[in-house]
User: What shape does this take?
Amino acid sequence: MSQPHTLATEFPFIARHPDLVYLDSAATTQKPQVVLDALMHTYQNDYANVHRGAHQLSERATSAYEATRHQLMRFLNVPKPEQVIFTHGTTESINMVAKGLLKQVQPNDLILVDQTAHHANLVPWQVLAREAELQLKTIPLDTQGCIDIAAFERLLQHKPKIVALSHVSNVLGSCNDVCKLTQLAHQYGAWVLVDGAQAVGHFSVDISAINCDYYVFSSHKMYGPSGVGVLTGKQDALERLEPLLTGGEMVVQVSYESSRYQDLPHRLEAGTPPIAEVIAFNAALSWLMQKDRAQLFAQEQNLIRTMRQALSEIEGIELYGASDHPVGVIAFNLTGHHHYDVTALLDQHGILMRSGHHCAMPLLQSLGIEGCCRLSIGLYTQPEDMQKTIEIIQQVKVFLDELE
Assistant: This one.
């Protein structure tokens, strides 16, 4: 039995629905049994509020909760656990940085955002630019859908204050050399945020090697529960942030007149967190760390390349994005047919994929399209899934062509 099939059997949804092909992993991944078990175990045996209680149940919950922070430190090669901040998702993490830097910027400071940015890594910077009277410019792409290094270096001559990058595009599958880009940006004194939501579930990420100021991602895109995000980065960069939320948990002293905040990480973690979900996230991390991630990533890339080649041989298919080393996704359209019609018909045949603008409207506008179909894979995706998908796409094309 091949390894991809063995992994597929660890996912209850995949095992229980052999008639469906789930190709929407870039939106959210299915969960292995170990994650579901951890979530249920916490609610049934160890659920209590964390950090606040003196009783044994709270102490157990706190210990398990903080174990996830330490596991993330190892998973990402982060120097200290206090440099791992829990949020409710990538979107909140980016907003936390954008809002947290409001007092650190001056009118006419420049923000650079790469052209593939998800709305979550664009809109918060637009809001900051409007509120603080900053400038915002986009970084052009090369022919592979990656950041154009020469164009980036020209923009850096204007000495931006903030550079917001995508590690991997959720539409094109292009992977940026964020180590090199961060190094270049730091030479001009910029603070760098990297959106890693589409990266961490596919390959190992070394935060110390990237050396960015902020790195953000979500649990639910890497086989963990929803409602959990991570903000990590350099300690001084994290300490620079004003808290997005204030209230309980993040304070050390409160009077009617004033309050004093805790140190990292708690000063950025106000309120009751998603306790069981954070604890179950540890199960997802442990599950991933037990795998040969380099081998699995190579298998994923082989699936994507094979699928892309097969799609390119279908007359009328228009492909977008990286062709050499795509990560996780393929974006395409069937010429003459609306992307929603294509995915709706695929759904009727059990092929589950996404259509629309994929929260990247400016990127699609730059490609001259309003939307597209997107298939995205996970560790449970098997070669036979891809073969079935190709066959159904061919059938859908014939059906739609006959309607004209």
Summary: The first strand starts at residue 21 and ends at 22. Confidence is low (pLDDT under 50) at residues 1-5. Residues 36-289 form a domain with the Aspartate Aminotransferase; domain 2 fold (CATH 3.40.640.10). The chain is about 40% helix and 15% strand.
